[in-house]
Design a protein that fits this description.
The complex is a heterodimer of chains A (92) and B (508).
Chain A (H helix, E strand, L loop, with lengths): L1 H7 L13 E2 L2 E2 H15 L1 H6 L5 E2 L2 E2 H26 L6
Antiparallel strand pairs in A: 1-2, 3-4
Chain B lengths: L1 H20 L7 H6 L6 H12 L2 H13 L6 H26 L5 H9 L4 H31 L6 H55 L26 H12 L4 H4 L8 H29 L12 H49 L4 H23 L6 H12 L3 H9 L5 H21 L12 H19 L4 H16 L2 H4 L15
Helix pairs in contact in B: 1-8, 1-12, 3-8, 3-11, 3-12, 4-11, 4-12, 5-9, 5-11, 5-18, 6-7, 6-15, 7-8, 7-12, 7-13, 7-14, 7-16, 8-11, 8-12, 8-13, 12-13, 14-16, 14-17, 16-17
The chains are: A mainly alpha (92), B mainly alpha (508).
Amino acid sequence: MAFLRWGLRPQEGDDMTVLGRRFHGTPLWIYGWFVLDALLVLTPPLHWAITGATTVLGVPAAVFYFVAVALFVCTSLVAAYLAEAAAGSFEP
Amino acid sequence: MIITFGALAVFFLSIVVILMLSRIRDRTFSDYAVGGRSFDARFQAMSFLNTYFPGAVITAFGGMAASVGALSFYFVTYTMLTVVLMYLMAKPVWVWGKAFDLRTQSDLLALRFGSRHIRPISAVLGIVTGLPWLIMGMLSLGFLFQHLSLQSLSFETAVIVGVAVIAFRQIWTVWMGMRGVVISDMAQGLVAYVGGTVILVGMIAWMVTAKGITFSSLDPKMLSIPGLDSAEGPLFVFSLLLTGTIGGWCWPAIFVRLYTADGVRSLKKSAALAVPLALVFATALLVFGMLGSQIPGVAEKPDEVIFIVSLEAGGLWLLALAGVVVMAASMGNIDGHIQATGAQLANDLVGTYWTLDHRQLIVVAKGGMVVLTLFSAWLATLDLPALFAIAILAYQGVIQLAVPQFLGLFWKRGNAVGAIAGMSVGFALVIVLEYFYPMSLPWAYGLTSGLIALAANLAIYVAAAYFIPQTDDERERVDALFARIENVSPVAAEAPLPPEASATRMPA
């Protein structure tokens, strides 16, 4: 709730772009990426779309989906840490 | 057998030597229970993996890939998403853990909800649901020892030998506590997941090149997953993914790893370090399992795919290495589980109602770990035909901890009444639903009993949050807790514990 209130209100005297804003030290766009992670993993119509024995690049569509989404989530976590470190979230 | 058991003995001795050289001396119960909050990101990453990917995962998910195929890959996906939850939880859990000297998952709930009664209730829920998995971990050693004996041991005898070996290993777990667990996790994890990945990829290459097995060789049924019109229900895959995602951090043995880090940065960095290795290892395991289904003998015994294929591909030496990988993964999970449960018995059950000093808490924890090891070892040697069903039921049960755990961390509303009532009703509902509809609910579109119960749990928690108003004191206390997260800079959080923040200051 605090996150939503914070995200929606204008930030006076704050010259940072939306991409530069942080919540609890974590850049806002990282939260956006995490939300996208959850949507890609947990949206049932995506699961229904990959049934059947069709293949993508020689790999079963279901396997391709599960691994590609896992790679997307994995990348978000690595990016989150690197972005927080670069933004100085772990500094005094 | 000299080669196979010899490799296992060398590995076992190596772990013992590493532990003996580490010269662990715990001065306080916090040292014993959470390793003095002293481990960097590399240790944290390997410690998480070694608890999260037990040997039973290699046999059970390798077997699932060999029997049902593509659906097993949901494991890779939810594993990644559960680490996102860890990333989000890292700061509040670690900051509160450090400030209030929290040692267990139940400690965190007691702190957040200002109730000491939630501590034993949540601890019992975690311990009871974890026991079947502990026994399953011991049983997976039965497969291991039977294959390493080249089938000269019966399965029953192999289980007894495996349980005896892993029970013997617990001498060092009981003695050295969490510090010993995390240090050994590093060595065991490198063998299990780095070495294991190399072996799995090698065996995949052998199956593709020497045997000509590819995805196109498989039965088309193995390439598909349950869809909109499936017998399992349209939400079956969603249920598997959601249950796995939120369940990962509900297990007390995994949750306690959030306290062992030396800071928030190490926790978050450990997530970034662990996920690429987890992705590669889990994908290799499942691809290996799917392709391995074409090797003769695997269809009849899919859970034993890693042993059957390694013997066929590389003879005794490769079988020995595969055995060491499974042993390394099993050790990490079983010792972590026993250590965390011992700490809960002392801290959350005995320590809630009796005032014990640090030395007494350590003694009670060690005693509890010995009893748990012997009790679960005894259960593992019994004929428990419904164990896998009980283990599935346990997963549906443990996710009931998710509501107070996650909402408690991110929402200032919510109170002890809602948390305790929600968890209790949720867990009871799981048992009732599983009793009347074992394994699946025909009217729930593929949702599991755990998710139905979770919805009821959530409704009770939210209703209590709105209908039972917080007192001014309670609101002030909760505000102060959250202010601590928002105001504390990472460096301040990692500074030494202030004197007023001992465990006795915890609202309980």
